[in-house]
Amino acid sequence: MLTRWQAYEDFFKRILLERRTLRSRFAMYLVTLFGILTSAVMVLLILSGFLNPLDHDLEKFMDYELNNRRQELKRQMDNLAAHGINYSQQLSEAILCTMEQHNLCLQQLNGQPHILQAIQTNAYDIVHDAMEKHPAVAPFICSVPVLAHKNRVRS
Question: Are 14 and 7 in contact (CB under 8 A)?
Fold first, then answer.
């Protein structure tokens, strides 16, 4: 085994120490030049993404996911807008009904806390139902049920 390694070592020493001919130097130059140019071309192709099809597949997948998320978000926003319109109509009807019961208009509500309390009491069920059905609208309407609940507890 040791002789084999010595033989390889002697072979490499002869290659490095012996004088090379001009033909062998030129061949070595061409092989080195070809290796460097091939490596440079491969690096450029990898950097440009031409040799890596995984990037293209990943980009297609991400575009597909983005379109799905965009459609889902649009659908949810449409549902939220429809529920908001329905909620505002129900709340407006409850307020107008209470005001008609007391024969008042909006300008006459100032200085009438008992009417405002009646409006809150009538609107409490609508607000409570809306919050139970659609928790996403809770931050927008949280002040009305708190006031109505406090008034209901006092009664």
Answer: no
Q: ∠116-101-148 over CA atoms, to 5°?
A: 30
Residue with the bigger pLDDT between 145 and 103: it is: 103
* 116 neighbors 104 (Cβ within 8 angstroms): no
pTM of the full structure: 0.47
Rounded distance between C-alpha atoms, residue 134 and residue 72, angstroms: 17
| Residues whose CB is less than 8 angstroms from the CB of residue 136 and which lie 6 or more positions away in sequence, other chains included | 80
Structurally, the chain folds into a number of domains equal to: 2
Alpha-carbon distance of 41 to 73, in angstroms, equals 44
Answer yes or no: do 40 and 108 share one domain. Answer: no
Q: Residue 8's domain spans which residues?
A: 1-51
* pLDDT tens per residue across span 7-29: 877 766 766 666 667 776 787 78
Structure tokens, 85: 């319109």
The radius of gyration of the chain from alpha carbons, rounded to an integer in Å, stands at: 41
Q: Are residues 114 and 80 in the same domain?
A: yes
Q: Tell me: the pLDDT tens digits for 52-103?
A: 666 677 888 999 999 999 999 999 888 888 888 888 888 888 888 888 888 8
